[in-house]
Amino acid sequence: MKYKLIALDVDGTLLNDDHELSQGTIETIRMIAEQGTEFVLCTGRAPVSSIPFMRQIGLGGYVITHNGAATVNVRTEEIIYEFALNPHGLEPYMEYCRNNKVHFDVNTTFGLYVENAAGLNQEALDMYHKFLMEPHDLPSWAEFNEPIVKFTIAGMPEQIERVYADWSEWPQAFNMLRSGDLFIDLMHKDASKGSALQKLAEKRGIPAENVMAIGNYYNDLTMLTFAGLGVAMENSPEEVKAAADAVTASNNEEGVKLALQKYCLEEQLRIR
Fold first, then answer.
1. Maximal CA-CA distance, the chain
2. Which domain holds residue 235?
3. Is 56 exposed, middle or buried (0-12, 13-18, 19+ CB in 10 A)?
4. Rounded Cα distance, 66 and 88, in Å
């Protein structure tokens, strides 16, 4: 099989809009994995909310999390590598958020921190619990025992658009990503899904032409363009589709399953 490593985005790609993973997609992934192809989830999620999908499918290997800022072994939960950012550089962004009533959180590879966790409203708690995350009170920088890998804001689309426009005019000390209609992430300048996927491919001895990636949003662009075959979902913005090599059906129409069948199982299915 040509593709030895396949990277899959999670939300808007692998999962449908109800955050479900279809049985048909699971079976297709298992069939390809049994032939020796490695799968890696490449997501903005944390390990705690992405590793369960790998275990549901029955896969080991790795997850690339926090939009490329941390790569973790699925079976041992060992951190393979992470891009730590300078927390002091976040202070102007935090002040902006406080002044403009923008919700933010600070992430280590496994932890998530907010100001006044006990005071979070139910909407914010529901958002975190949907991603299997439990927010903790944000300590001082000196009290962090683990590197900080991501700073995230969340809000309604019009608020996110306004913040993105404002921050785009600032000197760019971080990699600023639109990771969804409701989110903006700040990470280390060198952190991205594409750079993390490249590191993993090199670690596994797999050249780019034998890598396939499937995604649906702006934070997927770097991995779609790194991979020998980059596939965008039908529910992707037009700029993402234009950057990809191919387009599959939407996440609500099992687009991942259809792409995997077309590019990885077509010959086997014809034989059957």
1. 63
2. 5-82+191-271
3. exposed
4. 19
- Strands (DSSP E) found in 109-210: 112-114, 136-137, 148-154, 175-180, 183-187
Q: Give pLDDT tens digits for 89-108.
A: 999 999 999 999 999 999 99
* Distance between CA atoms of residues 233 and 261, nearest Å: 15
Task: Return the residue matching tokens 């060198």.
Answer: 190
The CATH number given to whatever domain includes residue 211 is 3.40.50.1000
- Compute how many other C-beta atoms are within 10 angstroms of the C-beta atom of residue 149: 27
Q: pTM higher than 0.90 for the full model? A: yes
Say if strands 211-215 and 5-8 run parallel, antiparallel, or are unpaired: parallel
- Separation of alpha carbons 220 and 218, rounded Å: 5
Tokens of 85: 């950012």
